[in-house]
Design goal:
homotrimer; 396 residues; alpha/beta; five-stranded parallel sheet; four-stranded parallel sheet; 47% helix; 13% strand
Chain lengths: 396, 396, 396
């Protein structure tokens, strides 16, 4: 029981009462204490499981997932988180037309939620749409709950949208907290969030945006680098600036991978599509202009091809602090000579960081479980202790 | 515990012993007491869940679903019901050819049932086939159980067939019982089950048939209205007539939406395909006559188009009792100006009834759970009480 | 409680310590005691369930399945086994390209395993690939576990590969053990594992190979018969020879169905593709030579057509011991005049053995559950007893 003390004593000092019955849509909508509560509960759940104590808090209930884009990692992470807490993951495979319009969305959201405790949504392809869709669903089920249609109100968890990817970046952050030995150790640490070349195109912006929006909050020196034209949403840059000012950190922008990597403690080189292009693409899809989409694709691949030198090479890694910055990636990476001819990262670099990369990914199920836990449990410290005293083994 | 008393005391007065180890295929095969037992158990399960008491009766077991037609609402209702009781929903995605012939159906039914406690089937497209298929599956697993192949015998639940849609109409009925304050209050109430215009075609007949087959049993004044040519199965009309005679209610038919709506307490305007056309379509599919199907489709849409005035408008609603009959629909509705240009119901009418409509739908998971409960539990009143004394929380 | 004694007392005399934390890939990699432990635990789990005692040992956890070939029976068996033990079956629907290369396989295997206790794989189509793929996945997750990426190490269960089909043949064997009244009764019994005609082609070799590899271990007289050209893998024939020598049994080969059936106690007539053809096909697929595949298909069907007389007829059955050998099949069978014009077995023979055939299939979920149980539980005899004393009912 004593191993939980370190987590419950942290929770007792944090203020996160607003998370109860809340959603998790953007990290910058959450207070610092709330972010810390997620890390703390995630760690506690992991320790419980490691000690063969089941953290199952639900005897029944559904965890509905809506994937408007393909997913393996996040799908399994969501299924794992639901399973760990006792919910049954149930995928809603929407016909696109069925939930296209406002009123019908309200109906569908209620129809799938009669016994849903959580709804996880991935909708990351269209600028201005994904996060908005999540809010529409949240509004619909809240209204349903208030009007007596739904006995319980499912909490919304953003499994990646056009703006943020909170379950990814929170997992990333928990990884670096563990790596550097505590959140206090991150103060002043430099992280290079840089664009990298990929032979594919149209990758979502949610990871770089999520990283600069989250990591600027803890006094880190966040350097965003990309070729000209690969800007991210300016609103998120504003968030990053404000965060850095408040936390005593820094938010720097450049068009130089070299500058970003210089003396960096952490590097996160990853491809993404230019915001302007993603916006144009959204409009083209809106107009069913498939010729336009094809020619945009060609244009973007051409544009990309001009930046093949944005690769995370051994030489670049040598310029980081001590030559051994922590390399991050949300996976799968485009590895030069392995999954593509030329890509985001040299094979030898990737290989050296394989184990930490897998560990980075391993935090996601716990982060999602913690988000659900905090939305459903009024007094998490007490319930965590009760789970220990209940003593239900995960494996008999 | 006391809140359960009202349900267990009702159950003690009802005779439903034949439901144990039985199927639920057509409401009119069930005695009045059996129908009432389903409502009572459904309500009791709902109250347990609302009071955070888990009604989970299975520690393991599968709930197999076979959907031979698309479904969102019923799929989630079935999954929710299984989950609530502790069963894992497992969809069987049959290759059409695999179970086409008698003997192979017997085999497949057994192969998927080694650990199945319930099989839910939707098969509503072909006249003379859907319900027959369910009975074949039921026969196969009963035989398997008797011969020692299956340790337990899965109960069959009709999730919509060519004849009836019992989980829908039982949910509808539970909704109006709650709305009017008790089943005794329904005596003499007029319900208008009417056809309504839709720009699509070929909608199943199971809802209107199910409604006239069920609601005539409780002394209601059931008025079935549709344009000439949109007849439902004559066998079910016979059932409705007999029911009305026995229950002291009425069963009226007309070709006038106006007559049906006049002074109605409840209206259920909904599109369906003519029985004769559905039968012809079944034959065409049987002969793989795809040209024939196309031309039938055209013919039906033309036929439909002649009845655009069969719309549930504000003016029609004004003619109902007090101008505020309870509007029902199994959803999704074809809403004029919202989901189609001209449809079953005016947007303002639909919008006014949105909350009660969603509540109507919310009964379905509990109705399905009650059907399973009554087929699996010999003494439901006792087990419901035991669930309360067990005190397992749904959410810890 | 006493009914478990017969199983726990057997387990106490067997040595199967190496099964803990192990995989189940080929029966001939397992010691005799280990094979017997699987049968014993499978029987014990079945008795627990029959006595309404839940053998659930997991409070949470995933059972990941990867089906690289279609499946109904094994899919439901795996889902049932997972469900019985408390695991949630989660299918991984891989994009073929995603896991094609070594490094990416390692990554994917880890990404889907953060909370997986078992991974079941079917990969039976390509010679030299399926079993190798399973070993790659096993290696990847073991490494992940050793490096601290995975808290628990999922056990691999072979749900059919190019070499063996252990969950099928172990179920077959458990069936004949029960039929003849004990494993000791099998000594000297003759089993005819024979090829049979089918109008389809390219059926996997895993069943005949699995049968001769397993059933030669218990002193049986195993007769493998097929037309010339329908050889199975020579490595497995070597295994069968060695087994027979060690167990005091026999392994005979012939090109005569008649010789095989003569005085047989058990017959297992079933179609398969020639090993050489399957190998050629694997190479053609490797080269994307689709014309080559088509012409090979034609060639194989022609070849097959020359052996229409390899049918399990009533006349042949009369030549077996007492005219009533036990007829086995892994199902579905190609039944002459029922599922095809001419096939593996006469309709009247199949029909007479329908009930035993279904029972044969009913062992598979328990065999899979036993394989998982033995890989996850250090002291199965003790835990089985504890399950009884825990007294958790499967159905409340």
């Amino acid at each position: 029981m004593s191993f939980l003390k370190q987590y419950t004593s942290v929770l007792e000092k944090l203020n996160f009462t607003d998370m109860f019955a809340g959603d998790f849509l953007l990290t910058w909508e959450k207070e610092r204490d709330e972010i810390l509560a997620v890390f703390t509960v995630a760690d506690a759940l992991r320790r419980l499981r490691e000690n063969n104590i089941s953290p199952r808090i639900f005897d029944s209930g559904l965890g509905v997932s809506i994937f408007r884009d393909q997913s393996t990692r996040t799908r399994f992470s969501f299924a794992s988180a639901c399973n760990l807490l006792g919910l049954t993951a149930q995928d809603f495979d929407e016909g696109k037309s069925q939930v296209a319009h406002g009123e019908t969305l309200r109906e569908t959201a209620n129809m799938i939620s009669f016994m849903a405790d959580v709804i996880g949504i991935r909708d990351d392809m269209y600028i201005g749409k994904g996060n908005a869709y999540m809010r529409d669903v949240s509004r619909a089920v809240r209204q349903g709950h208030n009007e007596g249609v739904l006995e319980q109100c499912p909490t919304l968890v953003n499994l990646q949208c056009d703006i943020d990817h909170p379950t990814q970046t929170m997992a990333d952050m928990n990884h670096i907290i563990q790596h550097f030995g505590g959140i206090d150790k991150l103060k002043g640490k430099k992280i290079a969030m840089t664009w990298a070349y990929s032979p594919s195109y149209g990758k979502p912006l949610s990871v770089p945006q999520g990283v600069i929006g989250l990591m600027t909050r803890f006094g880190m020196d966040v350097h965003l680098a990309h070729p000209e034209g690969y800007e991210v949403m300016s609103e998120v840059e504003e968030v990053a600036k404000k965060n850095a000012a408040q936390s005593g950190g820094k938010f720097t922008k450049s068009n130089s991978m070299k500058d970003a990597f210089a003396d960096a403690d952490i590097v996160y080189p990853k491809s993404w599509a230019p915001f302007a292009a993603m916006k144009k693409r959204t409009d083209l899809y809106g107009n069913n202009d498939f010729d336009g989409i094809k020619s945009l694709e060609k244009e973007l691949l051409n544009e990309n091809a001009g930046h093949r030198d944005w690769e995370c090479t051994e030489d670049l890694m040598k310029t980081t602090r001590g030559g051994n910055a922590l390399y991050l990636h949300c996976l799968p990476a485009d590895i030069s000579g392995v999954s593509c001819k030329e890509g985001e990262v040299a094979a030898s670099v990737f290989d050296r960081y394989r184990v930490p990369l897998y560990k980075q990914a391993s935090y996601k199920p716990y982060i999602i479980a913690a988000m659900i836990f905090l939305a459903k449990i009024k007094d998490p410290a007490e319930i965590l202790s009760n789970l220990v005293s209940r003593g239900q083994k995960r494996c008999f």
